[in-house]
Specification:
This protein is α/β, with parallel strands linked by helices. The chain is built from 15 helices and 16 strands. An eight-stranded mixed β-barrel has the order 7-8-10-11-12-13-14-15, surrounded by five helices. The chain has a two-stranded antiparallel ribbon with strand order 1-2. It has a two-stranded antiparallel sheet with strand order 3-4. One of its GO terms (molecular function) is cyclic-guanylate-specific phosphodiesterase activity.
Amino acid sequence: MDGAAPVVGRIGPETFAVASAAFASAQAVHDLARRISASLTRPFITAGYELVCSCSIGMTMFDGPPADAARLIEQADRALFHVQHGGEQSPAMYAPAAASTPGAGGNDPVSEHPRLAAQLRHALARRQFSLNLQPQLSLINGQIVGYEFLLRWISPELGGVAPTDFLPILEQTGGIREVGHWVLDNAAQMLAGLQREEAERAGTARQPDLHAAVNLSDAQLLDPRLSDVVRDIAARHAVPTARLVFEVSEHTLLRAGAAARQAVDALHACGARVAVEDFGATAHSLDCLAQFRPDQVKLDRGVVGAVSGTGDDTALRRLVAAAHDAGVPVTATRVETAAQLQALRACRCDVIQGYLLSQPFPARWIDDTQGVIAERARDLMP
């Protein structure tokens, strides 16, 4: 680039790049990144509701001969991974040492992609996947209403590999559909067992209204066979399809547009339920309610995380009110503090999920943890 003005381009569905030859120092790059972050995270009003966005920024520089653009983007992407992996929002500059630093589970997916992909091809057949469960508590009646089923991978060679490391590779290689079917099948099987146990414990033939929630990626949602798979799995385990909740991110729905609407309609037609994840993460959250008519929404973690004992919960209250106005119940995830619970209860949030109630635990622990979770649920109710 010969000019001094930065060039901005979109290089992915949710990724933008800024390039400039005008920076004299790393500090100048940091200053620009902070200004961008401050601008993007400033609350704004749309359709009468205040929304707050978040962003992560990775950076790189070169001071020699003209550098290959693809190489620079790769370096900035590695820096971005380290920001997102650590849960930080501050900009990060690429450094060769950091690029080789292992992530959670001992692997950086950028440099380890071929190795992880090779092992992932055999992980399902070798029974290396497992499920963790995290309970969901109704703030209306104080009952555990369901569990989210979370995929985990324990590799004999690599140890525990973080989902943020292996899920993108499963999506890129096409393995996510087969693994997703395995998750749904096992979740439905476990749900059937939980319902029978709860009915026996209560001394009634009527099974409780527990649900199993699983996540859907873009590829899974747009799989034309999905609704047939749901029907088959539900019938095999004698679980009503209405007890199966499919969580899809707001970004995925908006990005896929009409195709996503057709997929959601197909899930609804077979009796399953759909939850919009990350509700409040974009400026189009309210459009999701109108376009996709979800059965529930799950608040973006940034909305819940911003709430404290003395913090401003205006965005939270407006999002919950908007969902309720549309007749859609609201689940808050990553609830970790009593102050967050108090704010959620005050704005009439329906369901909570998070460490305040229980951290995710291996499925094999379910029999030993149900009593503890029930007691904790009672403690959290007024």
